[in-house]
Amino acid sequence: MDAMTGVLPAAAPRGAFRTPRRVLVTVAVAACVPYLALKVAWLSGSTVGIPAGSALRHEDPRLATVNALTVAMDAAVVVLAVALTRPWGRRLPGWVLVGPAWLASGLLGPVFVVWPVQTLLSAVFPGPALVARQVPWLDPWVFVLVYGGFLVQGVALGALFVLYVRERWGAPPAGRPVRPGVRRVAVAGVVAAVLPAVAHVAWACGATTGLAPGRIAGRGRDVAVLEAGYAVFVVAGAVGVVWTVFRCGDGRRAVPWVALAWCGTGTTAAWGGWLLLGGVGPGRRRRVGLWGDDTGVRGADGRRGAARRSPARGTRGAPGVTALLGRRARLRWVHLILGGALLMPYYLVAEVVLRTAGFRGGSPVVEPFVAFGVALPLVALTALFPVVRALEGAAARALCGADGITAGPARSWAARGRTCAWFVLHAGVGALVSGATLAVPPAVVVLSAMAVLPDRRRWPVPWTPAALSGRAWLAGCLALALLALLVVAAAGAGALLARLAQVLLGPTAAERLADAERRAVRLAARNRLARELHDSVGHALSAVTLQATAAGRLLERDPAYVRRALTAIEETTRRAVAELDDVLGVLREDGEAVAVAGPDLAALPELLERTAAAGLRLRSALPPGLDRLPPAVSREAYRIVQEGLSNALRHAGRVPVRLRITAGNGELGIEMTNPVPGNVPAGRRTGGGRGLRGVAERVAVLGGHLAAGADEDGWRLAVRLPVRGAAR
What we know:
The protein is mainly alpha-helical. The protein has two domains: 19-301 and 315-508, no CATH class; 512-677 and 687-722, Heat Shock Protein 90, CATH 3.30.565. 62% of the residues lie in helices and 5% in strands. The chain contains 19 helices and five strands. A five-stranded mixed sheet has the order 1-2-3-5-4, covered by helices on one side. A hairpin with a 2-residue loop joins strand 2 (656-664) and strand 3 (667-674). Helix 5 (180-204) runs antiparallel to helix 7 (221-246), helix 10 crosses helix 11 and helix 10 (327-356) runs antiparallel to helix 12 (386-400). The longest helix has 45 residues, at 509-553. The protein is elongated. The chain starts with 18 loop residues before the first helix and ends in a 6-residue tail after the last strand. The model is unreliable at 1-17, 129-133, 280-318, 456-468, 589-594 and 680-688 (pLDDT under 50).
């Protein structure tokens, strides 16, 4: 039984689907291929057709979401074109094909009217079409390819739909009286269309009332033509609806008015919804024309859109209302509607499978839910592709406001399994919310009309309970309850998906553990580099400071010493710069630190010579065979000695220092002592104490022992490092 007429469709006549239909469906599908290929290329990261400097080159998750949505819409056009030409298309419920065809007519209508006018005006009156945009979004050939394809799609799809309607439902019926309730609804719709029609006419004539700052700045000839086109379609739809409802005569003479109502209402609904979708989008990087909002307009604080947003705007200050109708709740509602739109191609495939298999649910209510259940496994299979996780993650971050979501594609089967669960939830819950969003507003309008308009007892609404007849207050309360229930359900479902997005699209426990380990390794490497910098550069700066101070005091009395001091400063600074360059060179371009092999005890005599040249009175006792120690122990011991000498230079000055190194019994001993000057009180510290902490870290890594502190003879630093089993 047909879902729209209530009668069984006649069997398709032999040869009903002939060559003209095959040609039309081939043309329609071929016209979709360039647009689909271009969108898939953009989703894959390509910038073909997008000039340098275009706003579309920005890394914006909304762009990926919009591209994915438009790919799904054009894929639905392909499925619709095939369904209109195949026998199984006659067995589908009428609304499954009529609804998408109505929306497709609405989306393609302005392309047929507005784009040719804009192109003609650009050819006859050359000049800037847009004022605010200096760099075009796309190359000119892309506009020709896309809109030319839309024109071909519209012609082929319209012809297929007309042929389909004539074969399935026959010639237009003769005029019959329209019920009073239907007329009242039509009048209410026409009255509601007056405001948008007047607004678009005013904007086309140059008015700016109600426009965002970005749209005011971006006005030009193309914008005026676009607004005028919207107004024409709104008025055409209203006229077509009124004429069809009130002047319905012979069936054939009513066809032009029905077509006018069809195209006008479809364009108003489709483009109104599309502009509403853009109007509640994220506030960053809004673009003139693409979203119809404040692109590039900065407020006094320099932020985009700051002139549009104010602290007192909206529902701020009312947490309950904000949770239901705030900006984040509206974005999540859009995210749910996006999920419902993504489910539609799968739903059509499921309907085809069920009809081909001869399934009959026995009830017009049961069949859609069965197809819905069949479509969800197909959704899960699609989610196995790694790119789905990246696209869904971008949409969830931009619209749901979910944090902690993995940015890249799925790289493991566990991640793909969680992506399947998320995609099924997004599409399933989104389809339910989208269906309620489409069904509740008309029901609210009818119930409100029943509560306000006279003759409520004769309303021919089959689904209205008989108890509402004559009870205006009950109809009004039911309308408010339905609207409130829709808002609460959408807000609750959006909040639930935002919470589940962090679980299903976020990193797994193993990924979090691996990331923590990588961060720990990077932090340890950077701490090691910080110690290297402190020991090498700190020692050099201490020696340079002491030599420069002594040279300044002896500048007049001992010029020869000053020359030697300046030479030592030059050599020390040159060596420090070289060591600094070596340490900084281990930082790769990706920011990760790697190990660097520093000097070891074989270079200790040079260190002692430079320190003595800085003015430190040094006595040292070094055992033979230091060059045969394990590399790790030798390098760390060199840095420990260097830090001890730097501390003596920095805190004690020109005092005698005694260094003693011993090697034997499987360990290396380092002992350094120096007296504390009388003008430096014990325990005073002029630095930050990082040197001794670095020494302690080095000793702990090698499993040694450290003792440092002041006693009755002065300052003492003693270190014992194990030699056996040291890392080589």
